[in-house]
Design goal:
Elements (H helix, E strand, L loop, with lengths): L12 E8 L2 H12 L2 E4 L8 E5 L2 E8 L9 E7 L3 H10 L3 E2 L4 E3 L3 E7 L5 E7 L14 E8 L2 H12 L2 E4 L8 E5 L7 E5 L10 E7 L3 H10 L3 E7 L5 E6 L5 E6 L13
Parallel strand pairs: 1-4, 5-9, 10-13, 14-17
Antiparallel strand pairs: 1-5, 2-3, 3-4, 6-8, 7-8, 8-9, 10-14, 11-12, 12-13, 15-16, 16-17
Protein name: Glyoxalase
InterPro entries: Anthracycline_SecMetBiosynth, Glyas_Bleomycin-R_OHBP_Dase, Glyas_Fos-R_dOase_dom, VOC_core
Organism: Rhodococcus oxybenzonivorans
């Protein structure tokens, strides 16, 4: 069971949470779907819920900001040594921050931003809360990927902000997809060119949760009021599907142990 207690290296996807209209309904849905033990936070946390898996923090659930008409969504957070420094780099690289960095009690300092293609993401400077304590395990996040119709612009932005390098695994014609890595590291997430896909989805970061049995999780999600919008499908990454939760938030489910074939860029 992969676990971590220390802060994550800067530029690593370190936390995920979802903002919804009804946190009580979300608590019921995700506890049933992933077996999370969803706990209340202190009153000053504003109704934020902490989802635990095997005694480790796995994800968060929170209410939407008051007075803001925003859709329910999962947010990917990237670790930062200094949220203030990264906020400045985001602006210099052509992105925007929605508000200045701020402290979250004694647990961390954060900022929410958008890249130049329009995808929102969070930046987390760890203090008492170091981020996800469990990952790459059933019911825990295992991958985070950007979906954008401005593929090269997105790659350039994140390279400037976090120093990512990229490995292209698509063929550049029917499928353009790059994994990203920290200097000297292995792939820790991906960027997808949505112009190669049907539909006109807005730019977004998609959170993928690992499953021991993708089909069973998709079936259970449907029983709990969610909608399966894609899959289940076999792929070189694993057997996967995409779910829209009962309140509209989208997330992926994947069993990475069930791979089929190779990505076009890996064939040789």
């Amino acid at each position: 069971m992969p676990t971590r207690d220390d802060a994550w290296p800067q530029g690593t996807p370190c936390w995920v949470d979802c903002q919804v209209d009804d946190t009580a309904k979300a608590r019921e849905f995700y506890s049933e779907l992933f077996g999370w033990d969803i706990q209340d936070s202190p009153e000053e946390a504003g109704g934020y819920l902490m989802a635990m898996k095997s005694g480790k923090p796995a994800a968060g659930i929170g209410p939407k900001p008051e007075g803001m008409a925003v859709p329910s969504a999962w947010t990917t957070y990237f670790a930062a040594d200094s949220a203030d420094d990264i906020a400045g780099t985001v602006t210099e690289a052509g992105g925007q921050t929605f508000m200045p960095p701020f402290d979250v009690m004694d647990v961390g300092r954060m900022v929410v931003a958008a890249d130049p293609t329009g995808a929102a993401f969070g930046v987390w400077e760890a203090k008492a809360h170091t981020g996800a304590g469990i990952f790459n395990e059933h019911g825990a996040y295992c991958w985070n990927e950007l979906h954008t119709r401005e593929y090269e612009r997105g790659k350039d932005f994140y390279a400037k902000v976090f120093g990512w390098s990229y490995t292209e695994i698509g063929d550049g014609e029917n499928f353009s997809y790059s994994t990203f890595a920290l200097p000297g590291g292995k792939g820790i997430g991906g960027i997808n060119d949505d112009t190669k896909m049907p539909g006109e989805n807005p730019p977004h970061w998609l959170t993928w949760f690992q499953a021991d049995d993708t089909d069973a999780v998709l079936t259970r999600a449907t029983e709990l009021g969610a909608t399966v919008v894609a899959g289940p499908d076999d792929s070189p990454a694993g057997r996967m599907g995409i779910v829209q939760g009962p309140q509209g938030e989208a997330f992926g489910v994947i069993d990475p142990t069930r791979t089929v074939g190779q990505f076009p860029g890996q064939q040789g």
